[in-house]
Amino acid sequence: MNDVHTDAKVDISAEGSVGGRFIRSILRSRETGIALAIVIMVAVLAILAPSFLSADNVSNNARNMSFVGIAVLGEALVLIIGGIDLSVGSIWGVTAVASAALMGYGLPTPVAIAGGLSLAALFGLFNGLCITLLRMPPFVPTLATMSIARATALMITRGRSIDEFRPIGDSFFELGGGSILGVPTPFVLFAVLSIVMWVLLDRTIFGRRLYAIGGNETAARLSGIDVDRMKIAVYVLSALFAGLAGLVEVSYLSSAIANQGTGKELNVIAAAVIGGTNLMGGEGTILGVFFGAIILEILRNGLVLIGTDAYSQGIFVGLVIIIAVFIDQLRKGVWRRK
After folding, report:
1. 194 contact partners, CB below 8 Å, separation of at least 6
2. Cβ-Cβ contacts under 8 Å for 175 (sequence gap 6 or more)
3. Alpha carbon distance 315, 331 (integer Å)
4. Is residue 10 very low, low, confident or very high in pLDDT (cuts 50, 70, 90)?
5. Helices 109-132 and 88-104, axial angle in degrees (round to 10)
6. Which residues does residue 163 pair with via DSSP β-bridges, in sequence order?
7. Is 20 helix (H, G, I), strand (E, B) or coil?
8. What's phi and psi for 169, nearest 5 deg?
9. Which of these, 305, 320, 228, 222, lies nearest to 269 by C-alpha position?
10. Can you tell me the distance from the alpha carbon of 151 to that of 145, in angstroms, rounded to the nearest whole number?
11. Is 0.85 surpassed by the pTM of this model?
């Protein structure tokens, strides 16, 4: 009888220790810190700007954060393998104007969308091939693609906006301007894609291989991973997510302009970094970049509501990036090792 009681106590103790480790792991995770930062920001802005928590403002925030959020899902994959994609903003823009132009020529919406995303995929393939076949550092081809894609958008639009490419009330405009059960459609899309990418990264061999490449590319090659093929796939995915973001945005705006997506690459990379993705590769989570996109939009919207000069908002975004990276360095004990 005593043995039974003893065994029960051991089981309870073990269970408690497992539960304690689980709680400690949650408290130590970077995502928990990011979530707490969101809570603090929301609380402060609710006091400084009472309209921040109004239903309309929350809905607008959810919609606006989704454009960058969709693009950052692809950029996160690139950063995890230790690369960088500076062309996402331009691919965002050229996909938007190309799809709008194709619809303006009378092509069916699905065909126009497929055409725009195919163009985005070609730019992503170009990036991947330059990096793998020509052994260029990622900065170079993606910077070149940023210029090429922007010039392509200008050639398509001839510097003019593309309006009335679809009749008023067309179902295409529901993609960016509609809602599902009161939730903006772009945010629903962002959430669904985030879940899909979480499964891809955390529950598949593909995801594990990405982290292996970012952690140690040489070791990944020696273990039999086709690193070049994985890199090409990642850059194509990054371009497709950027293109999708452009499509959703043009659906919301009902207009496409040549400079659409200009500067978005900075917001996308910022959201990834704020979300804890390591620029050196090997680290990053979908939940983290999801929170990063939320923080970026809360910051932007909050600065507007409290009357901050629009020209100085970039300063605050830059400071947040520095603080986020510094906190992550502290968490890893970098400063203690120096």
Report:
1. 69, 73, 286, 287, 290
2. 185, 186, 189, 247, 248, 251, 252
3. 24
4. very low
5. 150
6. 255
7. helix
8. 90, 0
9. 320
10. 10
11. yes
The token duo for 125 is: 């393939």
Task: Indicate the burial class of 248 (C-beta count within 10 angstroms; 0-12, 13-18, 19 or more).
Answer: buried
**Residue 182: alpha-carbon gap to chain centroid:** 23
- Structure confidence by residue, pLDDT tens digits, 161-196: 998 888 887 889 999 999 999 999 999 999 999 999
- The rounded distance, in Å, linking the Cα atoms of 225 and 231 is 11
Q: By the 8 A CB rule, do 326 and 68 touch?
A: no
1.10.3470, 3.20.20, 1.10.510, 2.60.40: which CATH number matches 29-331? 1.10.3470
Structure tokens at 198: 């979480």
User: Can you tell me the distance from the alpha carbon of 184 to that of 56, in angstroms, rounded to the nearest whole number?
Assistant: 11
Sign of CA dihedral 183, 189, 190, 193: positive
How far is 130 from 85, CA to CA, in rounded Å?
A: 12
Report residue 1 as tokens. Answer: 């009888």
Q: Tens digits of per-residue pLDDT, 262-298? A: 989 999 999 999 998 988 899 999 999 999 999 999 9
Q: What are phi and psi of 280, to 5 degrees?
A: -90, -5
Q: Where are the domains of the chain?
A: 29-331
- Asked whether the CA dihedral 134, 139, 140, 145 is positive or negative, the reply is positive
Q: Which residues contact 53 (CB under 8 A, 6 or more apart)?
A: 42, 46
